[in-house]
Amino acid sequence: MRNRSLIVTLSMILAGCAGTDPTPVELRLLAINDFHGNIQSSDPSPGRVAVLKDGKQEMVDAGGAAYLATALARERTGHANTLLISAGDLTGASPMLSGLLKDEPTIRVMNHIGLDINVVGNHEFDFGRGELMRKSLGDCAASLFCPDGSFTGAAFEYLAANVVDKASGKPLFPPYAVKDVEGIDVAFIGVVTRETPQIVAARGVADLEFLDEADTLNRYAAELTRRGVRAIVAVLHEGSSASPDTAVDGSDCVGLSGALNEIVARVDPAVDLFISGHTHQSYACRLNGRMVTQAGNYGRMLSVIDLSLDRALGEARVVSAHNLSVIRDVQPDAGVEAELRRAEVATAPIRQQKVTTLSAALTRQPNGAGESVLGDVIADAQLAAARDLGAVIAMTNPGGIRQDLPGDPGKGFAVNLSDLFAVQPFGNNLVVMDLTGAQLKQLLEQQWIDQPADRKPRILQISDGFTYCYDDRRAEGDMILADTMRLEGRVLKPDEVYRIAVNNFLAGGGDRFKIMTEGRNLVQGGGDLDALRDYVKGHAGELPDGPQDRICRRI
Predict the structure, then answer these.
(1) Which of 219, 287, 417, 538 is the most buried (most CB within 10 A)?
(2) Residues 479, 473: Cα–Cα separation, whole Å
(3) What pLDDT score was predicted for residue 17?
(4) CA dihedral of residues 422, 283, 91, 181 (deg, nearest 10)
């Protein structure tokens, strides 16, 4: 009787399966990352990319939201199921066209383009939790840009699985989204780099906790598995560094190293795919059998990932993945261009203010010691703006310098306020504080201490009159040569107090410069953009054409 019952049961199961469709469901994922409000197509961004034409590499114009929209429409054609995913830093550190208007133009453009999910990146927190929530939910009363009388916020979902409120322990945004694709559940778990509190202004995230990425992904992968979800995608605002040989066509990863590698190694095999960001790299390759992707930055590239979903089991298989360049050789989207025109009209009076004319470009390209000509100019500008507050040294973080300032040795390049905004888009204020000579040495040592795993230092850019040397062959914490730390030619004394000007990001311990939080007698100054504007305007024709060798590296 037991055997007969088993046979009947199996017969019923097979009969039920006989009527099901064995054809897998196709799902195309389109992914961007680190867009940073680069909605416009003109300089100073998004920029150019290298493409292969007739067997030769050629630089071509790429990016711009109107062209991105057209590329997305093309890649959606013939694919009934598509989703557009952003792996963070959709907004923040944006050019003036979007940044002046609190990035509302970017939100409106992404609503038009059809973005489905954005995972929060660290730059989403540049102006704090409250402003991020306003972008998500909408609030015209606090808006700078309501051309039609309303700002309804994002039509897409924000995810933040590992960002929790310290008081309640609850995630700031939903930890994941589950999409129904022809009856099959596909889940997307979103996490941001846990280093966010060290790389954004501390005041904006003081009431938030950023949890371990892999632990969080495992927690929610297990929860989704218990719910019966078998197709799980991790979307991370964290990534790795790629080598020139790293694949962009879905083959095995070569030369990929960094935080993403470590996270993938720790995450449950239930997660099928990792869409990443943060490191502004381009790769689409299999890392230990699982696909990992990232599409550069600024909307100049797009990841195209095709999944096959098993109707019976609900499981996902990555069929192919590749990155393509968003080249401006197509018709731009008219709806996006209409949004851009509205933003251009609203910001034109400010953007078009001429500041000066440059014959030589000021670039952020570092020399062998890590010093750049633009870094020197910005530090000098901040020192000039803070001298009335007693500052004798100014320092700025290289990550806060977002673009070069172009020059024209012929007729000169007319620098507008929008060009300066592209260089420093964060709206930081200057802070002047007291540090001892010993604390200054510790500050410079922190250019290596606790910095990213690839041990690339964050070399602070310093003002005229301050010089020092380092030897990075020495042990961490002992690389700065104390007897070379000089102000106006005199060696700094460990116990003497020096008045230092920095931006408020650094003053809060940003980029892991923790010693800054020990500064005394803090006084807030004006804006960093104002300081740069006044300085380049007042020093037209006197600006340097290269790094001034204030920092030396012993070799």
Answers:
(1) 417
(2) 7
(3) 47
(4) 160
